[in-house]
Amino acid sequence: MKLIILDRDGVINHDSVQYIKSPEEWKPIPGSLEAISRLAESGYRVVVATNQSGVGRGLFDMDTLNAINDKMIKAVASVGGRIDAIFFCPHSAESTCDCRKPKAGMFRQIGERFNVPLENVPTVGDSLRDLQAGVSVGCTPYLVLTGKGAKTAEDPALPVGTKVFPDLAAVANHLLSSKG
Ligand SMILES: [Mg+2]
Ligand SMILES: [Zn+2]
């Protein structure tokens, strides 16, 4: 079984410094939905792992987060794709939870849920913490330059071996041409 773990904001949809607080604010990055569709078609289980501290900060509630994620799932389905699961950390940055990236809690939960080792599982993010969380459990880090990615690319703390691509569509092309 092939698995891929994606960050949400800045990878699948446009990010906002003011958070994505409503379904209306959720807008896909061009090509990302089709990329997920191609990955799913090629046998990848596509899982999202996303920090959503806006819940912990009281900017939006769980019903709204569920509505936003529903919009994403439907948008992916509308182009023939599938998201197998969404894992999220609702806690604020000050919390001591073990799920907020760069901590590895969500990744461990994903490994348990799908019962697969996480070594060499590709993980795609636009922030350093996405990549750090993945690397800490053995995933292969892919940085996209969408969202905060262009800034992240300049960070000296970028994990060794991080592969850099313009966007999720380019990551999918790479994975499907080299390993498909
Ligand atoms: Mg992000
Ligand atoms: Zn958490």
Structural class: alpha/beta
Strand order of the largest sheet: 3-2-1-4-5-6
Mean pLDDT: 97
The fold-level CATH name is Rossmann fold
Q: What would CATH call the architecture?
A: 3-Layer(aba) Sandwich
Over the alpha carbons, how many angstroms does the gyration radius reach? Answer: 15 Å
What are the distinct ligands in this entry?
Answer: magnesium ion, zinc ion
Assign the CATH superfamily. HAD superfamily/HAD-like
Report on this structure.
With 180 residues, the chain is of the alpha/beta class. It has a single domain, classed as HAD superfamily/HAD-like (Rossmann fold), CATH 3.40.50.1000. It contains seven helices and six strands. It has helices at 32-41, 53-56, 62-78, 105-114, 128-136, 149-152, 168-178; strands spanning 2-6, 44-51, 85-89, 122-125, 140-144, 163-165. A six-stranded parallel beta sheet has the order 3-2-1-4-5-6, with helices on both faces. The longest helix is centred in the middle third of the chain and has 17 residues, at 62-78. The chain binds magnesium ion (MG) and zinc ion.
